[in-house]
Each structure stands twice: as C-alpha cells, then as structure tokens.
Write a structure and sequence with these properties.
This protein is α+β, with helices and mostly antiparallel strands. It folds into 2 domains: 91 residues, 3-Layer(aba) Sandwich (Rossmann fold); 38 residues, no CATH class. 29% of the residues lie in helices and 24% in strands. The chain is built from 4 helices and 4 strands. A 4-stranded antiparallel beta sheet has the order 2-1-3-4, covered by helices on one side. A hairpin with a 2-residue loop joins strand 1 and strand 2. Helix 3 crosses helix 4.
Length: 134
C-alpha cells in the first residue's frame, strides 16, 4: 500500500484482445490486481479464463492491448519474461505434476531451483500452503 492507502496494481491488463484464427478468445479485457488482492475469474467453458491466465504468463501471445506485471510490459522483448515469471504463479487445469515425485517434491522444486531456497525453507513454506488448502 502507498502512504495514501491506495492499492497500486501489480498486474494491469488493458484492452487485451486474443484471437484464435477469426475466433476472439479475449475481447477488450481490462483488469487491475493489487498486491494481496484475491481475484476470481469465472465463466462458462470457452469464455477465455485459461487464455487470460496464459496470456498473463505470456504462454499465449496477445494480439492487441497491454499486460504489465510490476510495471513491466510482459510483451516487450526487452523484458526477460523468465525473470517476470519468477514472481507469478499459475496452476494448470491438468496439474502437470511430475508423476515420479510426491506432491511436496513438486511444490518445492521451483522455490529451490528458481529462488535458491534451502530445502528446509522450501518445505516449510510448502507445508504451510498445503495446510491452508487442506
């Protein structure tokens, strides 16, 4: 929060359009998400929920509009998307877990490899998150 109690957005989506061929998957989507804010994206199958999430991570290239994460334009080739992704999280519909690892091992992999956390610290955080979701 800033001193004036305003929430500064960490993700800004402005007038985003995404087409698959001639079919619009996202049509003029705008949204701001502030730190600590929880946002739920709901809608029927095929309404663009996954496409929007994939676009925020630049797993989909948008056709028009702008997406910024912590002030960085994710579509700009000058910005390293892999560095930006280190502070983004995404859960895929098909979990895409490593089948030869336990849930805990899957959860601690990225924090250890990307954030260089110790195994103990990564496990402590993972167990805390697992406790939150039961």
């Amino acid at each position: 929060m800033t001193e004036s109690n305003e929430r500064v957005p960490i993700i800004t989506i402005s007038h985003v359009w995404k087409y698959f061929g001639h079919l619009p998957a996202l049509q003029d989507v705008s949204l701001e998400v502030s730190a600590g804010e929880r946002v739920v994206i709901i809608g029927p199958s095929g309404s663009g929920k996954s496409t929007l999430l994939r676009s925020i991570n630049r797993l989909e290239e948008i056709d028009k509009g702008e997406i910024t994460v912590q002030g960085q334009d994710i579509m700009s080739r000058e910005n390293d998307i892999n560095l930006i992704r280190r502070n983004l999280g995404m859960v895929f519909q098909q979990f895409n877990l490593f089948p030869h690892k336990t849930v805990l091992q899957n959860l601690i992999l990225a924090p250890i490899k990307l954030h260089r956390l110790s195994r103990e610290e990564a496990e402590e955080r993972a167990l805390g998150l697992l406790k939150k979701v039961g």
